[in-house]
Amino acid sequence: MNILKVALKEFFGMFIDDGALALAALLLIAIVGVLVKFAHVDALLAATLLLLGCLLILAESVARAARQKFQRK
Amino acid sequence: MTTLTTITSTVTAAFLGSFVEVVEAFTIILAVGVTQSWRPAFIGTGLALGLLALLVLALGPLLGLIPIELMQFLIGTLLVLFGLRWLRKAILRASGFIALHDEEKAFAAETDSLRRQSAERRADFLAGTAAFKAVLLEGIEVVFIVIATGAGHGMIGYASLGAAAACLLVLIIGIFVHKPLSAVPENSLKFVVGLLLSAFGIFWVGEGVGADWPGADLSLLAILAVLAVFSFAAVRMLRQYFNTHAEVAA
User: Fold this and answer.
1) Which of B40, B61, B197, B211 has the fewest CB atoms within 10 Å, i.e. is most exposed?
2) What is the residue range of B66's domain?
3) In the prediction, which pLDDT does B245 show?
4) Domain count, chain B
5) Is the CB of B85 less than 8 angstroms away from the CB of A32?
6) Which residues of B touch A (CB under 8 A)?
7) pLDDT in tens, B50-59
8) Which of A18, A26, A43 sits opposite B209 (nearest CB)?
């Protein structure tokens, strides 16, 4: 049971380290999906938005981690 | 559409991703074998591999039931999460904000822990459990990497080949070296894997929503290049930030 718990924790840990990054990435993907399926935005444009959005989310996440490192000291 | 670019990138991503995971599992198995004995190391490893095989046999056929576009979207989503997580850690490691992964240290920590338990009656069981856990946990990641890099274009076979080659290579090096594989540039490999997995994720989500990527599979390389340029720029900027603040703190 303990091993199952550890395995499940590890499985979810594979995808989520910084919760804000994971949430923002999921939101971005959902927005891209909605834009294409319901607002009929060009799929390639939406995919490009996804790439740029991922870069933005990653930049915010590493910048926040860097700031926190020195704020804690 | 199966192209050389897709096959090469699939095999490379599966090989490199699996390689770093197998190196980590190997360190624990070696620690168990050297500190306790090889019997629990092999039993723990064998049981974990058996459980992983059962998981793959049970869940593998279900993949065939999912429509390809939905599969690309779902796997792409998981890969974006997985890849960005790796990339974030790799950027923070390369710029000095988190410690580099060191197999020698991991080996020392595991052998210390096993030595403390060696007087217990259940020492063999605990050592076997350590090997079992390591192989199961790293193995789950390998299985995910194989599915994630291969399933989107029906190339699980190629991805499995990449992963199998990684396991074989670690095993061969391990038999000859017989110590933690600390000479493997694990942190650099993790950086490359983070880039590859993120690129695959963005590519699959794009395909899943119906994007007609220019140059088809070749655009995977373009996405990879954009991510790489961004990541190296981020490392450069964060290193400067780190050095400036470290000097002030000192």
Assistant:
1) B61
2) 4-241
3) 81
4) 1
5) no
6) 73, 76-78, 80-82, 84-85, 87-89, 91-92, 95, 97, 129, 132-133, 136-137, 140-141, 144, 198, 202, 205-206, 209-214, 223, 226-227, 230, 234, 238, 241-242, 245, 249
7) 988 888 888 7
8) A43
- Classify the complex by whether its ipTM is higher than 0.90, answering yes or no: no
Which of B249, B243, B250 has the alpha carbon at shortest distance from B95?
Answer: B243
* Helix H or strand E segment including A32: helix A19-37
- B194 domain-assigned: yes
Please tell me if residue A14 touches chain B, with a CB cutoff of 8 Å: yes
**Does residue B196 belong to any structural domain of this protein?**
yes
pLDDT at B192: 92
Domain boundaries, chain A: 17-71
> Is B88 in contact with A15 (Cβ distance < 8 A)?
no
- Look at residue A7 and tell me whether its pLDDT is greater than 80: no
pLDDT tens-place string over residues B178-237 = 777 777 778 888 899 999 999 999 998 988 888 778 877 888 899 999 999 999 999 999
Give a yes or no: residue B246 inside a domain.
no
Shortest distance between the Cα of B25 and any Cα of chain A, in A, equals 14
Q: What is the pTM (predicted TM-score) of this model?
A: 0.84
